[in-house]
Amino acid sequence: MLGQVRLSSAREFEAPLLAGLAKVQENQEVAQMMPFRIGADASCTDGTCGQVSRIIVNPATREVTHLAVDPKHRHGPGRLVPVDLVDATTGQIRLRCTLAEFQTLRPAQETESVPDLDPTGHSDNPDQVKWVRSAVGLPLRVRDPRDPGGPEAPPQVSVDYVPPGAVDIRPELIVRATDDDIGQVQGLIVESSGHQVTHVLLQAGHMWGRKEVAIPIGAVTKIGTLLIHLSLTRRQVKNLPPVSIDHPAG
Fold first, then answer.
1. Which of 74, 81, 111, 223 is deepest in the core (most CB within 10 A)?
2. Residue 165, by phi and psi: left (phi above 0), alpha (psi -120 to 50) or beta?
3. Domains and CATH numbers, the chain
């Protein structure tokens, strides 16, 4: 009987220690992976080319396919950079191309005509709603230069391009636990030997003193246009270990 009591006491002592070691091991494994942070500076082999504004993911394979890199302060069009050209193993975003080669990549934005909208953004059809994002805030009507006296062309808007079948991870996405919103997405962590997403980086809210945590991708149930849904509660996210990946110098 005495031996059983001692064994039980040993297990009670070891349980929190083993749990703590598991958290340390998990954090070390995350630190060895490759982070893609939104807002990180990106540089080509011969100079700085901008900042990461979005991360493009294939939801079927959970692989990162592109990074959208925009000039700072949105001066000029951004570019969609294939992830094969990206090296983030040092915590910084370095592209395996020159500035001239960067400019030949596919633009990260495209211009679309929106005939349903007038210059104030209202639809001609009250039952139809179009969600678009314009670099200048409102659609702009232009005239055909070949016929200055002719009718105005449909409004033009600049929208972020997303490859067919893909989704984009943007800084305005809110992360929602099963019981409340808990913060905003900061980026993704991918396998250093490949591009499969392993974790979502979250900047947790003020109620926890603002810390960055890595949420396993298996806990993500849905990525919508405004929200990333989790299968975890706020408390479960709170108990995740903080991330110890160095932030890139910016």
1. 81
2. left
3. 37-102 (2.30.30.240), 109-160 (no CATH), 167-238 (2.30.30.240)
